[in-house]
Amino acid sequence: MSLPQSENQLEILLDAEKIQRRVKELGAEITAEYRGRPLHLIGILKGSWVFLADLIRALDLEVTVDFLGFTSYGDGQSSSGQVKITKDLDSSIEGLDVLVVEDILDTGHTFQYLRGLLSRRKPKSLKVVTLLDKPLRRINPVTADYVGFTIPDAFVVGYGLDFAQKFRGLPEVRVLHLTPEQLAEVRAPAPR
Ligand code: 5GP
User: For residue 74, what pLDDT is reported?
Assistant: First the structure.
């Protein structure tokens, strides 16, 4: 797939300094809530690992980490909620305080599916932190327990988020203006 714009032409939505400041605040908030209790983080591959790497260093808690990967199938504009696991958790979460680390909450299909899947595994508690929230696109009425930034309805890349596996390494979050055809392609069945 040809890339629509080069990275430094893309408008910056959230600069690196703003992201780092907010991640530290989230770390402090989560530390205060779980103080004295071990916390099990589950990063959703692949978009959340940059956020998770910074967040874990902002937590003053005993923390363990696992990752979950899956493929979601879309209809050209959004994920549909039809999901296949590509990397399951390495260990049981039964009886643990679990915090799911997401990159972005969009239609809510993914989180709806994840919440069902993970609650059936009987964690002691299950919460979610998302770096970005796009409430204007929500179809499933789900909310995150911790939100880094609420953003408008735009397709964003950087800080772990990709377009066709590109732009993940950008330290900031930028807006990518996609044609409807490119949006359809990026939402086609593919590993996230
Ligand atoms: P949902 O199931 O909530 O619609 O979709 C969430 C997933 O869609 C995210 O975890 C992410 O992989 C992808 N996604 C949604 N919006 C964006 C966006 O603006 N940029 C990128 N790169 N991925 C997005």
Answer: 53
